[in-house]
Amino acid sequence: MEKKSEKSAQGGSALGRYFEGVGRRKTSVARARLSASKGKEIEMTVNGKPYKDYFSTVELRQIAENAFHKSNLAGHYKVSAHVNGGGINSQAEALRHGIARALLETDPELRKILKVEGYLKRDPRAKERRKFGLKKARKAPQWAKR
């Protein structure tokens, strides 16, 4: 799914190639686009902000970066991502899933590494719906015999 994006007629005629991957977790959806980069640090923007501003804690940043670190491609790609839905933690995990899928398009040999880590599998766990007559999904009101 290799794509090409063209700059507008005013901006020039340069073609930029990117690889795209969609990641999901709970109700979060992340669309990650990878394009070539020559830096040594990870360049990532999430919803127009630098990822260090978007993901405030170190743990969330590490979750988002994990696919790069495990595949030893930490500075090779620049990431532009759009995430929505869910909470901040599930957005970070959805972004990791999207990045892993996009990395797989760049090099199919990475499948073994990413699959062992579990980054290619969509985590199906989500909150169970509340049933009528119950207080939560499974919690029933207190019952007394007498």
TrEMBL record:
Residues covered by region (Disordered): 127-146
GO CC field: cytosolic small ribosomal subunit
SUPFAM superfamilies (alphabetical): Ribosomal protein S5 domain 2-like (SSF54211)
Pfam families per record: Ribosomal_S9
Gene Ontology process terms (BP): translation
Keywords: Ribonucleoprotein, Ribosomal protein
Gene3D superfamilies: 3.30.230.10
Signal peptide from the UniProt entry: none
Alphabetized GO MF terms: RNA binding; structural constituent of ribosome
HAMAP family according to UniProt: Ribosomal_uS9_B
Family label: Belongs to the universal ribosomal protein uS9 family.
This protein's name: Small ribosomal subunit protein uS9
Species this protein is from: Candidatus Giovannonibacteria bacterium RIFCSPLOWO2_01_FULL_45_34
Lineage: Bacteria, Candidatus Giovannoniibacteriota
